[in-house]
Amino acid sequence: MRRRVDTPRGYGATVEAVASLVAAADTELGARGTVGVGIPGIESPATGLVKNANSTWLIGRRLSADLESALGRPVRLANDANCFAMSEAADGAGAGARVVFGVILGTGVGGGIVIDGAPLTGANAIAGEWGHNPLPAAEDDERPGPACYCGRSGCIEQFLSGPGLEAAFAAGTGRPISARQIAAEAAAGDLAAERALGRYEDRLGRALASVINVLDPDVIVLGGGLSNLDRLYANVPALWPRWVFSDHVATRLKKNVHGDSSGVRGAAWLWP
Q1: Are residues 239 and 178 in the same domain?
Q2: What CA–CA distance (Å, rounded) separates 24 from 18?
Q3: pLDDT given for residue 238 in this prediction
Q4: One domain, residues 65 and 135
Q5: What's the CA gap between 118 and 140, in Å, rounded?
Q6: What percent of the chain has a predicted confidence (pLDDT) above 70?
Q7: Which DSSP helix (H) or strand (E) runs through 66?
Q8: pTM over 0.85
Q9: Which of 9, 29, 70, 116 sits at 20 to 30 Å (Cα–Cα) from 168?
Q10: 3-class SS at 51?
Q11: Is position 177 within any domain?
Q12: Which of 70, 55, 62, 57 is nearest to 18 (CA)?
């Protein structure tokens, strides 16, 4: 079964929404299932509180404990990009690859790392969080960059998220339109939209090159709404060699196989 609801804006509403979805699944399936949850952040190993969530109402909360209380069962929780990467590494676009970097390009920018089939979490539970590094090789008009909810400016997320693309287009044209509309106008030959996407691709190439220089993955898999821009898969690998410290770049850039379901599939696999 599959059910989807809009993301609630508020902590209590989020817990209630998850509890409602789990109760509906139990009823429909006639069984009491295990619960895995992917979130746009992570619970801190030091405090047990959610940190680094762009759904900012989750920050500072004991989400897994509150979900366990609401559901009356154990809950396993992980970063949503880690869940996405696990799903795509197992039987998706990264199947068979030793090192997979899973990227979310949506309302935020996240990343997850899978090595030999296992997710890499890291000592601080932040492995893969490339979205809150500064945009590499920033040009004069990219500094200091837009303010980010994390308290810094110029984060990759502020340039490469859907809202970041929309804000850049609106700043250049005075036209506040959606990322989907920008893509459609570029495809129809609009020069302003084409310039906006061309600059987006340049920024994505620079940002992913920095990941390649550190992690050297076999495959980078894109997810999130902007992963549906098919032009990225040819244009970005053509740009990133300028920034990668190698005479040849073997890393492949691929679109996800499992679409919006990939993160949910990865969360389900938090249980054996």
Answers
A1: yes
A2: 10
A3: 98
A4: no
A5: 40
A6: 100
A7: helix 63-71
A8: yes
A9: 9
A10: strand
A11: yes
A12: 70
